[in-house]
Specification:
The protein has 272 residues and is of the alpha+beta class. It is 32% helix and 33% strand.
Length: 272
Amino acid sequence: MVAFFSKNTENMKYSSSFIVILLLVLGFTFLLVAWVSPTRTSNLTTDLPGVTVVELFTSQGCSSCPPADAVLRDIAQQSEEQNLTVYVLSFHVDYWNRLGWKDPYSHSDFTERQRTYTQTWQNSQMYTPQMTVNGNPGFVGSRKQQAWQEIKGALKQPAQSSINLQVAISGEQATMAYQVTGDYQGKHLQIALVEKNIQTSVRRGENGGKTLHHTHVVRNFSSRSLNSSAQGKVTLQLPEDLKTANASIIAYVQDETNLKINGASAQTLADI
């Protein structure tokens, strides 16, 4: 009985060792698969070149805004010359209109967009000129050095989504067919009609008597959720005074919660 018990005990030790080794192998295999799979998936999107979306909240009624408008023009010009994937937008807010000059490009929706940003950033104030790069916390828009630092930092980060954008013009409307790939769940597609080379002679208010120059002024804006579908069509009305030779459509993917931007594309109307 003693010998029989010892033999079984030895067999049990071998069996236990085999089970432990088997579990270790299976566990290692599971961890390896779990580690490799996300990497393969992310490679579908992280190979995309970095893109930067620069949004400036400004107003013709604000005496501090013209220097920021000049910074935005400089960003647009240098980005074009250096072939950088930088997209700039100038949102004209309406809360300065009550002080003597109604900005013809202002809209309450743009004011609300700025308010949404500042609420998301927390402990941040609404002011003009305020600039944000890829949805990150805003700063004074006339700070040229800070603007370029944030832009260059953003360009180093690979885009997480890609937008195929096709635009057609019919009469006073522009219709955009879009298809988004990559990371788009929990995101919105923001679509803006912008116009560059705008000049306005301001007669009243803080900038009364000055001629102001703007670039990529948002003339129309639309937002679409990508949760139900990553493709669709959006139609924007073209303003009567729009110069299509100076107009473009800019589309960008933005997170619903933190408002970070992870992909963008553009189409100039002159090329249609």
